[in-house]
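Continuing the batch. This is chain 6 of the set; chains 1 through 5 are on the previous pages. Same settings as before, nothing changed between runs. Recording input and output for traceability.
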Amino acid sequence: MIEFMRDVEIPFLEENGFVKARGYEWFWLAREYFEKKDYENGFAALEEVLALLEPSDVYYANAISAREMERFVMGKPKKECGMLTMGEVYRKIGDRLYFWKQPGYGRGDYGHRSKYVFSNAAACDSLLYDESMKVGDVYRSTDGKSTLTFLETGVTVETPCGIFEGCEVWLTDSKKRDSYTKTYYKDGIGIVKSEHNCEDDTETRTLKSYKIVGGIGKIPFAAGNRWEYDASNFDSRFYDHKNVFEITSFDGKEAVASVSFCFLRKAYDERNFANMMSGVRNCYWDTDENGNEYLCDVSPFLEKAEKAAKTPFQKTYYAAASSVARRIMETDETLNPDRTASGHWNFFQYIKVKNEGGKITGKEVFDKDFECKSMNNDKMGNSLRYNFIHDIIKNVTGALWNDEWRDGFYLKETRNAYGRKIETEISCSDERTVTTAAGEFQNCLLVDIKVSGLEKTGWAYQGGHKEYYFAPGVGIVRMVAHRYNYTIKTVYDLVKYVGTGEGYMPLEEGFLRRYEAQDLADGYVASTEYTFAKNENGELIMFSNQEGIRMLEV
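Output for chain 6:
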């Protein structure tokens, strides 16, 4: 890749006079160098960008940010730091200010959606604000899934760099992103506070320092204007961090900004359960100097997390996550030369359960999940993939359970899954008895699902023909996946459960559902265990412990 960009593409662009394109190519070549830890050539490539482009070009701004961020992470362990470098463009059209562009790249753990201070404010049709709107006015997006509301004015905001009176508050509510953001503007200063709520977790950014050399309005624009934000989710005892926006160009209508985000973990709070679980999630793998990934021993984090777990929620969380983490380590040949099984399809998932409008759905919290997969793509090994029992039905139908599913129900529809259009056919029939190791379940409802459109993709296993059997008071008691033109059946049966309730899919705190793949051969073992607990906000969380291993001959 590097050789082709450097020796073929860039000379071609130079010969044919494509100055901007050459600048862009140098920028992405710099990224490739940095990925290989070739800092000398990476920084030299960024200087080429700055020499070729004007400050009004978003990649000029991005190169400034990249230079600063790469210096910050240079030589630091990837698992202990994260960086994000971007250029952003904001455009004024009449009374409206729009968020226009955001190229860039990141490295390491750069989670925390709240760092996107400007783009979070513009989650409704890319509109930050409209000067013609009055307090109480609501702008609805063209797709109807987002709103921008001018909430109030005259608000006082306290920040690390002072108290700002007379601020305006605007609310952006995005159903598409499952988030909302309150943005606080101080005329002549800019955004002084941003409260971003995503998946019911709120993070706050407040103005830490600023420099205004010119400009007017809610966000004054002039080259050299600069805003740095503090973050509620970064305790200075454990992190160093930066979140900076600096204007590189403004022509009266279009502003260009260099945007930088980075953090370095200095220490972990060993008494904090969430901190220790974050250590497990972020530190169970690393990369060597050649970019090759390898697994790491996170036993110290697990031991401290167990001691820090005090509440029933934390103990349930720990039990599921530690089971997956220890299995990943125990089945790795390097960490455990005496292993008795090889790991292939092991996942921990943290899912917020929602029951709305007769549909049970789940929102996965990806910054708490972790996994390790190394598939054997033989027919029996592929059976392990189907331990995504809940995910499969939820992803292809839009629900883990739907109250419309009753005897005689039929639906054929086109929907989106994984950015693709799929065709889903659902039919339901009842009065069936299913017997598993967990017992005999009468009056089961069969939800029969046929899906096309995922063939020849990484999610092909979620397509095809599936049968889900739901028992009243219990939930799913069997899942059958028909494979290889119906020549193979993969069956996952309920083998253990705790807790019963009303309906075909009761889910409550304290419930447990364990499923195991039936009749696997060649040493393969697969299972999924779902446990449920309510967090400190009263939300029902489903923990998924998915096992996919192969026993070895010893």
